[in-house]
Amino acid sequence: MTVTAIDVFAHVLPPKFYQEMLQLEPRLPQMYPFITQPLLSDLVKRQQYFDGQINQVISNVNLNPEDYTTPDKALALCRQGNDELAELVLANQPMFLKAIAMLPLNNISGALELLTTQIAPRKEFCGIQLFTRALGKSIADESFYPVFAKAHELGIPIWLHPIFDERKPDNNIVFSWEYELTQAMYDLVKSELFTKLPQIKIIVHHAGGMVPYFAERIAHILPPKQASDFKRFYVDTAILGNPKALELAVAYYGADHVLFGTDAPLGITPAGAGQALLAALDETDLSLEVREKILHENFEKMIVGDQT
């Protein structure tokens, strides 16, 4: 199959999983208006916008069972939601290529079980999604370390997505998530994660937040090992365009650590920023070789056995 691009950060809202979540919290659409985007769940309509150019790696939009229910119920919901994600991949090829699985971080033993028995063995999955904070704590908190260690042991990459820090009174969709990503990256670096787990792969949404813009502050203020560890992250291109910002991300992280990601179907109506980002990459000064790495080769190299 000829691939133009692989969108590594595309979202869905699995319909059956969503109905279960609504039973737990009926106010979810009012609390998080972005989940009402129709193409998150209406995949028949979403197929109408698929032009064969961009294959999508799907992950659940920000609804985490651990925030609404008991550890046992959260485990059951994640297991069910992961099965549904896998079904969506199989039912919507070639639009959907792979899925990113959910884990219940209020049930660490259950999360490790899912990694071992549900996620690692199934070809529909290529990673897990974690969030910048969980249960009121930074994702770098030592209580979550077993999840990183098991993912490292199994060779499963981690997709890092932001959430709002509820301690803050001024969260907003434009700037807050970029800060949350940056702070989580800092916390992970300080935890010496990359020393403990040298082969860990973490893909950070939204081009790594603020990090590339503050590269010199990082280099001059932090110890050298911490500063260098920031470049161990992988990042996507989900910044809705902006050729110069894309060039900066590549300059900082390196061409091998940037992957095409759009946040589809969010960001630009009606179906996301895919075409805008393809156009932005064409406007950069990046070579064709580098753009091909970003568009699909880096993902194909990362995911062993990928059939694209």
From TrEMBL:
Signal peptide: none annotated. Residues 66-298 form the Amidohydrolase-related domain. GO terms for molecular function: carboxy-lyase activity; hydrolase activity. It comes from the Bacteria. GO terms for biological process: secondary metabolic process. Keywords: Lyase. InterPro entries: ACMSD, Amidohydro-rel, Metal_Hydrolase. One of its GO terms (cellular component) is cytoplasm. Gene3D superfamilies: Metal-dependent hydrolases (3.20.20.140). This is Amidohydrolase-related domain-containing protein. It comes from Ligilactobacillus apodemi DSM 16634 = JCM 16172. The lineage of its organism: Bacteria, Bacillati, Bacillota, Bacilli, Lactobacillales.
